Amino acid sequence: MFSAKASFLVSLCASSALAFTPPARLDIPLLLSPGGRPMMGVGMSSGQVQNFNFTFTTSLGYTAVAGDGCQDCSGTSLYDMSKSSSAKSLSGQSAMSLGNGTFEGSLMKEDCQIYISNGSSWAYPNQTVMLMNSQSQGAPFEQSISGLLGLGTLKKPTNAAGFSASFDDGLYGQYYIRNPDASNFTFGLDLKPSPVIPGTGSSLTIGPNAKSLADSNVGTVHWLAPDQSVYQSDKVQWRQVQDSVTSGYLTNNTQPDLTVQLDKWSATVGNNQVGQSNILVNVDPYYPGIYMPMQQARLIHDAISGSQQVSHSTIPGQTNAWIVPCNTQLQFTVVIGQQSFSIDQSVLVVKQDDGTCLSIIEGFTDSSVTQYIFGQTFISQIYVIFNIPKDGTAIVGFAPRSVSSSQSRDIGAIVGGTVGGVAGVVALGLLAFFLIRRRQDNTFFKRAAEIEEEHKVASTVEPYTFGQNLVAHHDPLQSPPAHPHAPLLGLHDAGPSGVAPPSYEEASESGLSSPRTFPRDSKMTYRRDTLMSVGSPPESPNHTNFSGSSAV
Fold first, then answer.
1. Which residues contact 231 (CB under 8 A, 6 or more apart)?
2. Burial class (CB in 10 A: 0-12, 13-18, 19+), 216
3. Which 3-state string (H, E, C) describes 303-363?
4. Does residue 219 surpass a pLDDT of 50?
5. Parallel, antiparallel, or unpaired: how do β-strands 259-269 and 272-283 relate?
6. DSSP 199
7. How confident is the model at residue 526 (pLDDT cuts 50, 70, 90)?
8. What is the Cα 109 distance to its own chain's centre?
């Protein structure tokens, strides 16, 4: 742990020594697709911008978009290469697997931009992109999702996708080419729990208690820098990425670039406790639940009286889930260094349409899979930071949420590092009790004096009976710390004038912002007839060795 933290601090110091001004944090809002995956707004082409909804993954370092030649794509917008002035074809075909889906297509170079919360954008040009033309069931390109943003590192050159890919083919490599004095690329995940529950279909199943999915906010990616207001920065536990792992991952999938080793997990069911030490984990918001080797998942569910293994899954063909009694008391804890992060049954047990309940902890059906995946719902209980340096090994940080951030979420989690917080709550409770009792006692004595004055007789006073205790109320559905946000996804074209939204650089220099708030049609795409601008761009960071905010 110390070496990982020391490496991160040294790299940050090196950044300062080289006179590179770290960029300001950008907030990328995440909305929920109708299919249940988190998505962000991405524009493609530096000319006539084509705008799409992209989901994202840390398991792959590649970017892919559904092309207009895709025969297997429906219910989503398709990229048209003929409309782009910046796209360049590359030789070769590629095929990729993610979860239980596969997709393939040709390769190209394209200029891209990610839309941020104030309506402007962060540009990342010259990306290697798969122009996807076919996919299998289980691939993400459906129900308004047109693309996949890979946040893996590609640090290890690979031919796994059918072409020779290296660090420079990914988002981070191109960032360092544009910013040669930069030493680190960092982002944090501030997510809400996934509404997806294990199901029996080829697509994801949404729980019956989920709200309307259209445009619902599922969190924020804090881009280029973490947001220290939403986590306890003094309790971050850092773990180095395991570069040498080559086996034990999902069938037909490549080993994720950002796999880390954590100390252990344990599960408590009544008086029973089970667990496992030294686990290899891929932390990826593309997946909704918690996934582990079948033998370990059975240890947990065998301890739950009345549990039953079923074919329900959120990675069909790769995992199984368990039906459990709806009154199950379960706590799942992950130990990372000096912190323990725990989740209880309010998150782990979900209800189906028929009233029965399922556990979101799933087991891999392939016995050769020995690794773990912690998906969106687990991530939502903590704060996760990814740091990808130009040189050296990437690290991942895990931190308890700040008190204000945790209280604003309807998550029911028990997060580690709470001893001081509990003491504070007890002290406040005692103070409140004293003040209420004092106020009530004063009322009693005042009333007793009035009675004695009125009747002029001695009387026996009955003991005062306290009423129901007052309970402090907060809205469990409150969002995390507010930031400017409005739907920004699904644009098809550049608006009535045919002019693309300004880049982040242009917006910063001119004071304009990219159009992003539009009425939607039935496919969740925006109509161009009521174009309007929202928000204002952030102040441009003070860079010294490159020009323009879009280069960050």
1. 188, 382, 383, 399, 400, 401, 402, 405
2. middle
3. CCCCCEEECCECCCCCEEEEEECCCCCCEEEEEECCEEEEEEHHHHEEECCCCCEEEEEEE
4. yes
5. antiparallel
6. B
7. very low
8. 27
Q: Distance (Å, rounded) from C-alpha 263 to C-alpha 122?
A: 36
For the full predicted model, state whether its pTM sits above 0.85: no
361 and 290 Cβ atoms separated by less than 8 Å: yes
Token representation of residue 57: 């993954």
Supply φ then ψ for residue 429, to 5 degrees: -60, -45
CB 95 within 8 A of CB 33: no
Spatial separation of the C-alpha atoms in residues 383 and 219, rounded to whole Å: 11
Please write the tens of the pLDDT for every residue from 414-447: 334 333 444 444 445 555 544 444 444 444 334 4
Please give the structure tokens belonging to residue 91. Answer: 């030789």
- Strands 272-283 and 372-374: what pairing? parallel
* Beta-bridge mates of residue 548: none
In single-letter form, the type of residue at position 322 comes to W
Residue entry with tokens 């994202």:
56
**CA–CA dist 353, 370 (Å, integer):** 32
In sequence order, which residues have a C-beta less than 8 Å from that of residue 452 and are 6 or more positions away?
458, 459
H or E element that contains 5: helix 2-17
Identify which of 362, 371, 351, 240 has the alpha carbon closest to the alpha carbon of residue 310. Answer: 362
CB 44 within 8 A of CB 65: yes
**With left for phi above 0 and alpha for psi between -120 and 50, is residue 215 left, alpha or beta?**
left
Task: Round to whole Å and give the CA distance between 49 and 418.
Answer: 48
